Amino acid sequence: MAAIILFGIFFLLLFMNMPIAFALGISSLAVILFEGLPLMPIASNLYAATSKFVLLAIPFFILGGNVMDKSGISTQLIDFARTLVGHRRSGMALVTVIVACFFAAISGSGPATVAALGMILIPAMTNVGYRKNDSAALVSAAGAIGIIIPPSITFVIYGSITGEPVGELFASGIVPGILMGVLLVLAMIWTNRGREITLLPRASGRERWRAFVRAIPGLLMPVIILGGIYGGFFTPTEAAAVASIYGILIGFATRKLKLKDMWPLLVDSVSQTAVVMLIVGTASLFSYALTLTGIAADASSALISLTNGNRFIFLLIVNVILLIAGCFIDANSAMYIIVPILLPVARALGIDLVHLGCVMVFNLAVGLVTPPVGVNLYVGCGIAGIKLKEICKGVMPLIIASIIALLLVTYIEPIATFLPGLVANNLAA
Question: Fewer CB within 10 Å, N side or C side of the chain?
Answer without folding.
Answer: C
